[in-house]
Amino acid sequence: MTTAAAATTPPQETPAGRELPDRTAPQRVLRKRGSGRRRLLTSARRVLVPALLVALWQLASAIGWLDPVTFASPRMVWDRFVEFAASGVLATNVLASLLRVALGLFIGVLIGAFLGLATGLSRVADELVDPPLQMLRAVPTLGMMPLLLLWLGIDEALKVGLVAIGVLFPIYLNFSKGIRAVDPRFRELAQTCGASRYTIFRHVILPGALPQFLIGLRFSLAVAWLSLVFGETVAAESGIGYMLIRAKDFLQTDTIVLCLALYALLGIGIESIVRLIEWKTLPWRREFVDR
Amino acid sequence: MNARTVPPQPAPGVSISVRGLSKHYGSRLILDGVDVDVAQGEFLAIVGESGGGKSTLLRVLAGLDSDYDGDVVVRQPVAVGFQDARLLPWRSVWENVVFGLHGSRSGLRRQAVDVLAEVGLEARADAWPGTLSGGEAQRVALARALVRRPSVLLLDEPLGALDALTRLRMQALVRSLWRTHRLSVVLVTHDVDEAIALGDRVLVLSQGKLADEIELSFGGPRSREDPAFERVRLRILEHLGAARYETELGRY
Which of A35, A58, A158, B151 has its CA 20 to 30 Å from the CA of residue B22? Predict the structure, then answer.
């Protein structure tokens, strides 16, 4: 059912009391998801400000307001991009970073979701698990670095571990909160419908907690990139962070800006993947979210 | 779920039998030795002030609260309608109707659409609950109750949140469903007019005790113009300590 149809369908008549109109019919006019020209216009507005900023930046570089030694011009960054893309340096390093993020995310989400599930469903588990996790969360990752270096070495395990640790907390906190926030009246209803414990878990608790879980996933993706930059600047032989550190040593501001731009683009890309997941898994929310 | 896994069935012809039901919340006595009998096919309305224990009574009957004293026997299966329709927002209308039932998806869907037709909503079978109006949501909740072919239908202020017109329509619908399905209905409400309009018998619950029991011998459709209606109304309001306000403010 499309949103427009929902708003314009006349209220259904009951067999009894045919003459009375249904006064509680939805009055809000829901906009359709932008189609054709409107969607194009929306996308155009979205890229307008970033495009203007780049143009301004190029202008400032061209007339000498920006010193190319301290801040490369868009043109220089583009040239560097083309060069790296052609030589394969770009692909290698981006792939290395992506792999680390993916692996770290996988591990972190798995552990975080497990802990969130346990603490969300069981008060005892919450009392046992939450205090140590909150303590661990209060410790800055930077402060744990010496230990992590000892435990995980300076290779891949360190970077993946850093990402996983960063990802774990937002997933844990949000999933646990989401499960506990599921309206107890829904569980009660499920009882009166004769639903089994499994049915309640699968069809009431999990879908009820899913929106909050996805919020956690968004947070954890942001944290994942942050942790990765950190990890890759400590000790690495590949990855975007590695490119960044080397460029700093050689004062190549064009490469530095390129790396920053790559982080930004990858961040946006992953954000839109999460949006797609939300779109796919929360179809019942589509008619309210006009995006 | 419940401690009483296999509830005993009441005597033939009886749907609900409650003897000496008492219920405490801490030191507060919510229900104080309540006796209720509901015959098969009877429409019982229970009125009372808020906090008077009527919702608690219904929760006990629904098996949602097993921490009480006394004997409670309710003919199974029981279906419950709450004040909020309680549709799961992530399940479509028809999936909500058959929630908790087993069977093939197509079979369940057919079942759901059939019963949705009874409440006049078969066209919205695939809609999301969030797109329904308050009255439509309550009709889906009624369909969800009916699809279980209950002997007993327990309604906890199911019309309380609706506007006056939708409410009248829903009252007519509830009464016609009760008649066609030959259900025993227990309706809890704070609306005295609604209780008199729908019930065969009205119980007045005040401070945890049964204050009055009124057989409504005059037939339906009952109208407020009927002097008998007015007499019952004032008698109930007297119990609830509201008759005085009624005369001071006039009728509204």
Answer: B151
By C-alpha distance, which of B55, B72, B19 is closest to B188? B55
Q: Are B73 and B9 in contact (CB under 8 A)?
A: yes
The reply to whether B109 falls in a domain is no
Range of the domain at B81: 14-88+150-249
Rounded Cα distance between B119 and B173, Å, is 7
Q: Supply the DSSP string of B29-96, one letter for each residue.
A: EEEEEEEEEEETT-EEEEEE-TTSSHHHHHHHHTTS----EEEEEEPSSEEEE-SS----TTS-HHHH
What's the ipTM?
0.82
pLDDT in tens, chain A (291 residues): 344 434 333 333 333 333 344 444 444 444 455 567 888 888 888 889 989 999 999 999 889 888 888 888 888 999 999 999 999 999 999 999 999 999 999 999 999 999 999 999 999 999 999 999 999 888 887 788 888 888 988 888 999 999 999 999 999 999 999 999 999 999 999 989 988 899 999 999 999 999 999 999 999 988 898 888 888 887 778 899 889 888 888 888 899 999 999 988 888 888 888 889 988 888 888 765 443
Cis amide linkage into residue B77, ω under 30° from 0? yes
Whether A3 and A31 have beta carbons less than 8 Å apart is answered as yes
- Could you tell me if residue B240 is inside a domain? yes
Query: Within the 182-241 window of chain A, which residues sit less than 8 Å (CB to CB) from chain B?
Result: 185-186, 188-195, 199, 203-204, 207-208, 210
Neighbours of A70 (CB within 10 A): 8
- Report d(CA A100, CA A226) in Å as an integer: 12
Residues A73, A79: Cα–Cα separation, whole Å = 10
Beta sheet of B14-25, edge-to-edge order: B28-39, B14-25, B69-74
Cβ-contact B35, B20 below 8 angstroms: yes
Q: How many domains does chain B have?
A: 1
Across the interface, do A17 and B169 touch by the CB < 8 Å criterion?
yes
CATH of the domain at B180: 3.40.50.300
Within 8 A of A12 by CB-CB distance, chain B residues are 120-121, 123-124, 136
- In a domain? residue B21: yes
pTM attached to this predicted model: 0.78
User: Smallest CA–CA separation between B154 and chain A, in Å?
Assistant: 11
Tokens matching residue B225: 């113009």
| Residue B106 within a domain | no
What is the distance between the alpha carbons of residues A33 and A31, in angstroms, rounded to a whole number? 6
Omega before B221 cis (within 30°)? yes
- Residue type for A263, please? Y
Does A10 touch chain B if contact means CB atoms closer than 8 Å? no
Provide the greatest CA pair distance for chain B.
60
Indicate the pairing of strand B14-25 with strand B28-39: antiparallel
A217: tokens are 């996933």
- Inter-axis angle of helices A74-87 and A37-62, to 10 degrees? 110
3-state secondary structure of B19: strand
Partner-chain residue, chosen from B80, B126, B163, that has the shortest CB–CB distance to A24: B163
